[in-house]
Amino acid sequence: MKRYERVARELAEQIEQGVYLTGERLPGVRRLAAQFGVSISTIMRAHQLLEDRGLIQARPRSGYYVRAAPGRLPEPPAMTNPRPRPARITGQQMAMQLSQATRQPGMIQLGAAIPHPHFLPTRAINQALLSVTRHRQQRSAGYEFPPGSAELRQQIARRMLDAGCRIAPGEIVVTSGCQEALALGLRAVASAGDVIALESPTFYGLLQVVESLGMKALEIPTHPRRGISLEALTLAIEQWPVKACAIVANFNNPMGYCMPEADKQALVELLAAHAIPLIEDDVYGDLAFDHRRPPAAKRFDTAGNVLYCSSFSKTLSPGLRVGWVAPGKYQEAIEYQKYITSLAAPTLPQLAIAEFLQRGAYDRYLRQVRGEYARQVARITRAIGQHFPAGTRVTQPAGGFVIWVELPEGAEAMALFHQALAKGISIAPGPIFSASQKYANFIRINCAQPWDERLEAAIIQLGRLAQDGLERVAAT
Fold first, then answer.
1. Around Cβ 193, how many Cβ atoms within 10 Å?
2. Residue 294: what are its φ and ψ, rounded to 5°?
3. Domains plus CATH for the chain?
């Protein structure tokens, strides 16, 4: 065996053993050369061999990163096939039970998509809050009427350049989280009884907003890697009076996919041609495992038809409730809706986040946390593949921190949800991600939890509960 083949074999074994995890960067060539006692050219040939086998991938000016090992991760679910008919939303009270479970002490939180404090820059945010209260007392005590803090909107406009969007600070409205941004967007473009086209499955918080406004959901088939089916959406638009479309294109919740750029552009152009506004939820866009921030669909908007919504709840602090919307031609309507709904977003959190961003701390934090989420997703996915019933399928996201798990036919996600709660484990059952309570054998798992013995035991317990449920169904 040649030297480079020996090195490649040992590196492959280390990847298999979890020394280097999916999405993680391998040590540099000089360091590896020293570790193995070989030349740099030998390491480079070993890298080439591992790359040819699909175990690692090169990234320009960055190094080599571990790919998901072929055959070692569960297969992803198939494309969804909901009934393409507008429907009133039912069963969303379960989402409230899920939120309430987050407040129970000792609960292992795999349900609500909330990062554990371990992954958040809590100390730095607290320092920013303290700085604002000390040095800007009068300002922080007053209202920041819509569109919100000028300092924060300036920082957000700079951040949106990374998503390919040239948005002026004056074209941004600060909101109380992304949830309010979505609600304001829907209220600005549609009314009770109107039809809203959605991915299927989709974020249950969006379904709750649609339900609360008396609108109807039209679920569109969605691919676990490419996103919403443009063909199915086109047919739906021809058949039904679609008033708006709402999507999560980047690291979708719950499926985790990142919609290809060409599809984003085609989606924006399709909706613009029919004068249908697009409400884009990009709350996970900064959390790409490969550190390359994907563009937003808003990038391709030339008519002001896209209402771009996001927040810092998944990256900096859920509790500060700072989000925003770049509403295009609906700016005036959004500002008015914001004013009559809640007058203004809280001032202190706006100023604190603006200060945090101005320091440049956000990018440093993102470089760290992206790798941590990639490792957590890989660990939990592999644990599910090992401990869940045979035939379980799991999505393979390229960013964010949630995975969509398809249990074998006959499994009952709602029963599993209640059984898991009784064991101190929270999960999100599939039916709450559908207007018509589809996905009876699906669950969503929040991977933004530190890996330890308790978390591993929880995954094993969930697998046993799922298997027990299948055996009970088979026995009846």
1. 13
2. -70, 150
3. 3-66 (1.10.10.10), 120-361 (3.40.640.10), 364-475 (3.90.1150.10)
* pTM of the full structure: 0.85
Count of Cβ atoms closer than 10 Å to residue 438 Cβ: 18
Strands 195-200 and 63-66: unpaired
Q: Which ranges of 71-216 would DSSP assign to H, the alpha helix?
A: 93-101, 122-135, 137-141, 150-161, 177-189, 204-212
3-state secondary structure of 171: helix
Contact call for residues 159 and 357 (beta carbons, < 8 A): yes
Question: How does pLDDT run across 96-115, given as a tens digit for each residue?
Answer: 766 776 677 889 999 999 99
Nearest to 163 by CA among 320, 244, 280, 322: 280
Residue 69 has pLDDT above 60, yes or no: no
Average pLDDT over residues 408-427: 95
Q: Calculate what percentage of the chain has a pLDDT beyond 70.
A: 96
Distance CA(294)–CA(250), nearest Å, equals 7
Give how far the C-alpha of residue 7 lies from the chain's centroid of Cα atoms, to the nearest Å.
Answer: 36
Q: What is the DSSP string of 199-211?
A: EES--HHHHHHHH
What is the identity of the amino acid at 84? P
Residue 271 corresponds to which tokens in the numbers above? Answer: 């909706």
CA distances to 202, 266, 291, 405 from 262, rounded to whole Å, are 21, 6, 20, 27
Q: Are 267 and 222 in contact (CB under 8 A)?
A: no
Structure tokens at 60: 């320009």
pLDDT tens-digit series, residues 383-401: 999 999 999 999 989 899 9
Question: CA 420 to CA 467: how far, in whole Å?
Answer: 13
| Cβ atoms of 185 and 164 closer than 8 Å | no
Kindly state the tokens that stand for 413: 């996600």
Residues 149, 354: Cα–Cα separation, whole Å: 9
